[in-house]
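Title: Prediction job returns without error message
Component: structure pipeline
Severity: low
Priority: P3
Assignee: unassigned

Description:
Job completed but the reporter wants confirmation the result is attached to the right record. Sequence as submitted:
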Amino acid sequence: MTTPTGQSAALTVGVVQHECDPDRERNLAQALAGIEDAAQRGAELVLLQELHNHRYFCSIEDPGNFDLAEPVPGPTTRALADTARRTGACVVGSVFERRAAGIYHNTAVVLERDGSLAGAYRKMHIPDDPGYQEKFYFTPGDQGFRPIDTSVARLGVLVCWDQWYPEAARLMALAGAEILLFPSAIGWDSADDAAERRRQMDSWITIQRAHAIANGLPLACCNRIGSETSSDRGPVIDFWGSSFVCGPQGELLWRAATDQPQVGVVTIDRRRTEQVRRVWPFLRDRRIDSYGDIGRRFAD
C-alpha cells in the first residue's frame, strides 16, 4: 500500500537511547552500533539523541568546552555517513557545530541512505536555565523551521528545547513535514523529589504528544540516560531516557525505560495522517485571520 503521494505507507523508524561518558569515541561507537542494530531490524530512518558524542557539557560555562566543536561536514558527519551508506538507513544525528570563529550551533544533521548530507537543522530555541546554560555555547539557528527532504520522508527535525514550543512543530507541519523528530538531552536535577520528577516527565511527554495531535503527525523523540556532571563545579543531571514514538493522535507506539540503553524499532502507517486530518481537521479550521498577536512577545 502507498500514500497519496505514492510513497510506501509503512515507515520503520529506529530510536537509539544510550548513556554518555567522557570518551567521545566510545559514545560515537555506541551511536553507530545502535544504527546498525536498528537497520538490521528493518529501520529505514534512525534517530539519535542530542549531542550524542559527548557528556552534556552545558551545565557550566567553560570556554574550554568550545574545543569539542567541529565543522559540518566533519568527523561526526563522515562517521554517520559511512554507517548510513553501509546500512541503507537515513540517519538523524547531532553535532556541536563550529560554523566560524565565535559562532557555534547545536545542529541536527540528516544523512541520506547513500551517505550524502541531506540537510541540517540548527536549534532555534536556546535555554538558559540552572544546569542548562546553552546560551553561553550556542548561537540560535537562522534557517527557520524548514523540513528536510529525504528518500524516506520529509523530516520535521527539531532539537530538545524546541520541543516545548507549539509554534515550531506547527510551522514544520505547515511546510509539509511528514514526521516530527526530536533529539533530546533532558533530565532531573539530582535534588528533585519524586513528585517533581513525575510532574516534569509527564509534562515533557504530554507536550510532545500534543504536537503530534495538533498537527496530525507521527513523532519520535530520543533522549539520553545516566547521571552526568560536567565537572566538580557542575550540577548532577539524572537524564530520564524515556525515548518514545507516537502516532498522529498522540498514541504511544513505543517507549523506552528511564535508565537502560535501548534501540527501539517501530513501523508507522503514514496513511493515518491523511485519515486523522480528515476527521480532526485542525489545519482546515485555523483562524489565520485572527492570529496576528502570535508574533508579539506579549499582547498587552
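Comment from assignee: result matches the submitted record. Residues 10-295 form a domain with the Nitrilase/N-carbamoyl-D-aminoacid amidohydrolase fold (CATH 3.60.110.10).
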